[in-house]
Amino acid sequence: MRSARLVVSAAALILIAGVAAAFTRAPSQDDTTVIRASTVLDGAGATLKDVDITVRGGKIVAISKATSKAPAGTIIDLRGNKTVLPGLIDAHSHLTWYFNAQGRYHTNADGETPAQGLAAAVVNAHATLMAGFTTVQSPGSPEDLKVREMVEAQGNGPRILTSLQALQNGDTARLRSLVQQRKQQGADLIKLFASASIRDGGTQTLTAEQVAAVCGEAKKQGLRTIVHAHSAESMRTVINAGCDQIEHGVFATQAELDLMAAKGTWFDPQCSLVFRNYLDNRAKYDGIGNYNEAGFAAMEKAIPMAAEAIRKAWNTKGLKMTYGTDAVAGAHGRNAEDLVCRVQSAGEPPMHALVSATSVTAQSMGLGDKIGRIKVGMDADIIALDGDPIKDITVVRKVGFVMRGGKVRQ
After folding, report:
1. What is the mean predicted confidence (pLDDT) over 183-187?
2. Which has fewest Cβ within 10 Å: 69, 230, 263, 264?
3. What is the phi-psi region of residue 208: left when phi exceeds 0, alpha when psi lies from -120 to 50, beta otherwise?
4. For position 172, which CATH number holds?
């Protein structure tokens, strides 16, 4: 797997620019590209066999049964032991988190410059794209707008949606004002903390009135809300406030899952990547804030609990479960690990997990008519795996082809 440890220098910045230039040398929008595939998972649960996918102007313009006659246009042959599917989507990824030159988790007190931080985020974005994730949602960084601008200019990362800085506290008037401010700043959604970190027990931190103020104002502003909530109590508060999506939910019981299904609340649980990444990189986080002995013990304890919550969730009729990893420093480029965990540890059927990570998550973002499916009219975000993920989910680690918006990136 790729390492996310970064030491950003002037030489690295030059290398990034060179890589970006290479990726942007793609056929013009007028050119036609035909992807020939033996097996296609369409992102909505169907499997297509022996088809040609025609791409033009960044869109999928035709899907036809393959014939012996070579089609017109640039041909990309992905037949044989490869599985073609829509670009994967991560609903919760922190691209601006990275390890600094000292090999420690970057904080504002470590002397790193903003330019180093942006360069690190671009590298994280590139690793994420190469792992097959063509869209990510970043909840909580004011630098995301600049990162998105750089990624789009260089063509070396996924589509990025951002909440900018998350909301954590304040009276109801202040919270409503902050929602309005995020809208003006260009946020795509609102992120709210309604509970403490798992390292601090995950207990509820906001009142029902505070949560309702944020989610109500966001709806007025035309913005979605995703809410950090671990405890059962905080989850119930969020659901009853009419918020759009719950993040994490490690302590969810069947009652909260049923309530989410009844109210139409999206659920974005994490299986293991974020917890194992912290534990694997303990020395790089240890001693910073609540990354301490008690915090690491809490995360280790959370791993089987998180898998059990996901097992209950995918078995809950009508529950809309998205795919988000909470990828932080050390995890970028390994975003598919939670697919492996969800299948192997939570018993989720592989097709169900893959649909969650494509069309379902696209719908949760309001992008279901644009991404997440291999379908005529959709953006040409297309990847190929070396193997069959339905038979062996671990092949999601083997991404051999990446196209984003009709342009080949790998």
Report:
1. 98
2. 69
3. alpha
4. 3.20.20.140
- pLDDT for the residue numbered 72: 85
Based on its alpha-carbon atoms, the radius of gyration of the chain, rounded to whole angstroms, reads 21
Phi, psi (deg, nearest 5) at residue 70:
-65, 130
Instruction: State mean pLDDT over 263-274.
Output: 98
Q: Tell me the two tokens of residue 40.
A: 């296609």
Domain count, the chain: 2
Non-local CB neighbours of 9 within 8 Å, separated by 6+ positions: none
**Contact yes or no for 383/132 (Cβ under 8 A):** yes
Task: Mention every residue, 6+ apart, whose C-beta is less than 8 A from residue 389.
Answer: 41, 83, 85, 339, 350, 354, 395, 396
Residues 6+ apart with CB under 8 A from 111: none
Kindly provide the b/e burial profile for residues 159-193, where b requires at least 16 CB atoms within 10 angstroms of the residue's own CB.
bbbbbbbbbeeeebeebbebbeebbeeebbbbbbb
Return the closest-CA partner of residue 233 out of 201, 262, 275: 201
Residue 6: pLDDT band (50, 70, 90) is very low
- Shared-domain flag, residues 270 and 200: yes
Please check whether residues 211 and 234 belong to one and the same domain.
Answer: yes
Same domain, 207 and 231: yes
Shared-domain flag, residues 53 and 108: no
* Structural domain span for residue 56: 23-86+374-408
The string of pLDDT tens digits covering residues 284-317 is 999 999 999 999 999 999 999 999 999 999 999 9
Q: What average pLDDT is seen over the chain?
A: 93
Distance between CA 180 and CA 311 in Å, rounded?
Answer: 37
Strand pairing of 224-229 and 382-385? unpaired
Rounded CA-CA distance 390/16 in Å is 35
